[in-house]
Amino acid sequence: MKRQLARLLSLVMVLGLLASVLAACGSAPDLKENYPLESVNQEGHSTSYVYRASGQSVEEVADELASQKKPDQISSANSEHMFLVYGKQWYHLQQDPKKPEDTLVEVDSEEYVRSNYNSSFLETYLAARLIGDLFGSGGGYGSYRGYGSKDEYKPKQGTYHKPTEQDKKIAPPITVERKGQLTRRGSSKSVTDPGSVTGGSSKSDSGTSKGSISRKKGGSSIFDAPKPKISKPKTRFGTGKIGRRGR
After folding, report:
1. Where is the composition biased (Low complexity) (predicted)?
2. How far apart are CA 161 and CA 194, in angstroms?
3. Residue pair 144/185 in contact by the 8 Å Cβ criterion
4. Predicted confidence (pLDDT) per residue in 112-137, tens digit
């Protein structure tokens, strides 16, 4: 029995470790907190978000992103173009032709890559097998080669524009760890004071927030549980008779 339990625990630990590794491989590094969003092209599920890494080379940005999250595939070091693939997100790092000291980081969905990029161009940087799996028997006939050359090699789908506030909210990837907040019902103010979870009065945003505990009628606290009624066991009294054997 003990051996079976030990084997079961070992199997659970192995499966948990494998799941965490697979989850890490599928996730992507964060860009929103480090680089400003410069341009957006979105048409349905086909999306392309462009960030600017000021004063950083393509290789430097690639090393920084790869150190955050290991990509499923990364192209060889190149001063002009590099690709990092994270699940269904393709990171195209490119030297800005108009400002060579900067790197443009373009995050494209699979749909966008399939609809706009040229497969021959991608095969220059990535494995042919990956390109074949993406395009299959169709696609890969576009002329697009990245945001830096969008005026020369225009995308088939949509047009780029400056990001709106809504674009900034939904721009991928969202991997930043944030602290949760509780919100009182009927109030737009967030609750950060643990003592105010049950409700109560609150001050202005610059002041502190104190919670209170409501009481039932009669002055008893809501945490005062009713005392159970304890009754004595019922007993019966009677008389008995003792008889002798043999009579």
Report:
1. 195-212
2. 43
3. no
4. 999 999 999 999 999 988 999 998 86
Per residue in 61-73, pLDDT tens?
999 999 999 999 9
Nearest to 31 by CA among 104, 114, 94: 104
H or E segment at 190?
A: strand 190-191
Q: Is the per-residue pLDDT at 176 higher than 50? A: no
Q: Give residue limits of the domains in the chain.
A: 37-152
pLDDT tens for residues 47-98? 999 999 999 999 999 999 999 999 999 999 999 999 999 999 999 999 999 9
Output the CA–CA distances (angstroms, integers) from residue 120 to 35, 151, 215, in the order listed: 30, 19, 73
**What's the pTM?**
0.60
Residue 106 β-bridge partners: 50, 92
Res 185 pLDDT > 90 = no
Q: 74 in helix, strand or coil?
A: strand
Q: DSSP secondary structure string, 154-204?
A: --SS---B---HHHHHHPSP--------EE-TT--SEE--GGGTT---B--
Number of alpha carbons in the 13 Å side-chain half-sphere of residue 135: 22
With H, G, I as helix, E, B as strand and everything else as coil, classify residue 11: helix
Could you give phi then psi for residue 208, rounded to 5 degrees? Answer: -95, 160
Please name the residues in contact with 242: beta carbons below 8 A apart, sequence gap of 6 or more: none
CA distance 174 to 95: 24
Q: Which amino acid is at 221?
A: S
